[in-house]
């Protein structure tokens, strides 16, 4: 697959210097992985007084954190309303997780503010229209439970949604007011700087290659040296590789494609998403759209990564923007790139204990910007011992590999065409119904 390159790489401010590990040392906590989860954990753990070392194979934000769409979404996947989360996790954990998620938009924007991070951002809400009349109704019905869970949201009918988004044809749905958008790579780099300022040590270019239980704790080996610590957090997400097979085999890696257009005229900017509130509908193969801070539309979605699919993806996703926003000048792909999310079967995140003091958090699916930021703060509290596993936001479980992990990579190949077909049927059915009503 040929990539034109990530827009965020072109426009994000540079990150801090993080020299590779050189020699052997000890710490209270080793965090492996410098995405939002690892960086937020390191920041909060260092602030709480733990001697914290973060090891990153490449550089801060190299993984999904520096490649995502930058939607700050204080809500779980649309299939997971409060009732469904309660069914899956039990009342106590569901309440804790829903509270954490509800506050997670504020967590992101507050962290940026408090630490003076140089992160282009807009906290003007996140829009979730239904993709059909039935989805619109489902979202409207879910609002009271979301409000009760502390989510700052309201329902917008079809006209309000179209007026606010400037996108004709959208159904009604939810606006989560504490959500918004950020430049994700700028945020990852800002978190790294803040973690260093709080006292954490970050070593980039320092892949953990082995984890060995060693007396009272763990020894983490990298090409440049080792770190010994009583506690270790694996925050390697979909890039875990062979470092921990039990962690890797608990998720399905899903490739997500992103494309950014050329800079568009001010007239378009004033018309489409004029409030810079990003939009993502309830389609299984979600339609998502936002502006970059330099005036480009960004969209994307799941792709099946084989052969020369990149060129097709570029054309396909640009033409998808035009289907929703027909009145646009010709669009060109000025940047395109991919990243991998760690998906779980029930779309819920996991906190796994691999051994005494050795944890892994994974599976924030496509909701990791806000959720990992908030989860990192919770994990830091667990690491300080000020809370127990029993009181943690997520159930802390033994590893639960998927039944046929060697087939995990195949799942998207089956899921994508099937879910796109269902989306088309549902959206088509509802467009027909709407048309029928208009004609009556
Ligand atoms: C294209 C795309 C779009 C998305 N859009 C959104 C969105 O708009 N909103 C949203 O909420 N979520 C979105 N997501 C999901 C979100 O980006 C992720 O859930 C989140 O970034 C995960 O953060 P993380 O820290 O767990 O993992 P990552 O950011 O993937 O970080 C893992 C890190 O671990 C490092 N690593 C791996 N192995 C080792 C090792 N052995 N030693 C040292 N380091 C190692 C990697 O280099 C990497 O930097 C999107 C994801 C993708 C891919």
UniProtKB/TrEMBL annotation:
Cited PANTHER family: FAD DEPENDENT OXIDOREDUCTASE DOMAIN-CONTAINING PROTEIN, SARCOSINE DEHYDROGENASE-RELATED
Signal peptide residue numbers: none
Keywords of this entry: Oxidoreductase
Pfam family, one: DAO
UniProt keyword RNA-binding, yes or no: no
This protein's name: FAD-binding oxidoreductase
Molecular-function GO terms, alphabetical: oxidoreductase activity
Matching SUPFAM superfamilies: FAD/NAD(P)-binding domain
Taxonomic superkingdom: Bacteria
Domain annotation FAD dependent oxidoreductase: ranges: 28-380
A GO cellular component annotation in the UniProt record: cytoplasm
């Amino acid at each position: 697959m040929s990539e034109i390159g990530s827009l965020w790489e072109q426009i994000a401010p540079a990150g801090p210097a993080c020299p590779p590990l050189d020699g052997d040392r000890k710490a209270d906590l080793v965090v492996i992985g410098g995405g939002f989860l690892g960086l937020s954990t390191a920041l909060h753990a260092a602030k709480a007084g733990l001697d914290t070392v973060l090891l990153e194979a490449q550089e801060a934000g190299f993984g999904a954190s520096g490649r995502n769409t930058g939607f700050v979404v204080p809500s779980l996947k649309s299939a997971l309303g409060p009732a469904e989360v309660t069914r899956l996790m039990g009342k106590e954990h569901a309440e804790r997780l829903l509270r954490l998620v509800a506050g997670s938009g504020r967590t992101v924007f507050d962290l940026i503010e408090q630490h003076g991070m140089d992160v282009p951002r807009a906290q003007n809400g996140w829009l979730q229209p239904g993709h059909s009349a039935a989805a619109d109704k489902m979202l409207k019905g879910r609002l009271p439970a979301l409000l009760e869970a502390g989510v700052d949201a309201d329902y917008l009918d079809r006209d309000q949604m179209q007026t606010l988004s400037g996108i004709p044809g959208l159904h009604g749905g939810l606006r989560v007011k504490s959500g918004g958008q950020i430049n994700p790579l700028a945020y990852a780099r800002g978190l790294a700087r803040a973690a260093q300022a709080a006292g954490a040590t970050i070593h980039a270019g320092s892949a953990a290659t082995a984890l060995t239980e060693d007396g009272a704790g763990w020894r983490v080996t990298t090409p440049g040296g080792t770190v010994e610590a009583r506690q270790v957090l694996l925050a390697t997400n979909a890039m875990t590789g062979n470092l921990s097979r039990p962690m890797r085999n608990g998720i399905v890696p899903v490739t997500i494609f992103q494309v950014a257009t050329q800079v568009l005229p001010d007239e378009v900017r004033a018309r489409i998403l004029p409030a810079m509130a990003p939009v993502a509908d309830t389609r299984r193969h979600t339609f998502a759209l936002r502006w970059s801070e330099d005036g480009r539309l960004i969209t994307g979605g799941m792709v099946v990564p084989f052969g020369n699919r990149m060129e097709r993806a570029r054309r396909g996703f640009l033409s998808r923007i035009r289907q929703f926003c027909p009145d646009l000048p010709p669009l060109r792909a000025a940047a395109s790139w991919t990243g991998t999310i760690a998906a779980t079967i029930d779309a819920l995140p996991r906190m796994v204990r691999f051994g005494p003091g050795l944890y892994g958090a994974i599976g924030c699916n496509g909701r990791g910007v806000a959720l990992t930021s908030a989860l990192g703060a919770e994990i830091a509290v667990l690491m300080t011992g000020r809370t127990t596993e029993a009181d943690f936001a997520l159930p802390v479980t033994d590893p639960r590999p998927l039944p046929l992990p060697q087939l995990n990579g195949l799942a998207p190949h089956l899921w994508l065409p099937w879910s796109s077909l269902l989306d088309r049927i549902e959206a088509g059915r509802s467009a027909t119904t709407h048309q029928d009503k208009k004609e009556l």
